[in-house]
Amino acid sequence: MILERIKTIIEVEMGFTCPKELQAANFVNDLGMDSLDLVELTLLVEREFTIYIDDNSATEMSVVGDLIEYVGAKNKHLK
User: Fold this and answer.
1) 78 pLDDT above the threshold of 70
2) Contact present, 61 and 18 (Cβ < 8 Å)
3) Which is nearest to 47 in space by CA: 15, 9, 3, 4?
């Protein structure tokens, strides 16, 4: 559920192409995001899941799986 919603954000709202192994995809190296894209992704995910991602947590995330895990921890009912 979380993976699909994040994939939709990345592909539909941001225009990036997701690889098959999305959870292991690095935001910069695999998806081609720059720092502004990462800020936009953070804001879109915050809005989609009604959560707050603090700056420190956001900078520690390097792959999509990190983001999925973070969202899951904030919204335990969404696993």
Assistant:
1) no
2) no
3) 9
Q: Give which of 63, 5, 56 is closest to 33, Cα–Cα.
A: 63
Chain-wide mean pLDDT for the chain?
94
The overall longest dimension of the chain from CA atoms, in Å, is 31
- HSE, side-chain direction, 13 A CA sphere, residue 72: 11
Assess whether 34 carries a catalytic annotation. yes
Give the active site residue among 34, 37, 55, 66. 34
Q: Is-contact 7 18, C-beta < 8 A?
A: yes
CA 64 to chain centre: 5
| Torsion angle in degrees (nearest 10) through CA of 44, 34, 30, 76 | -30
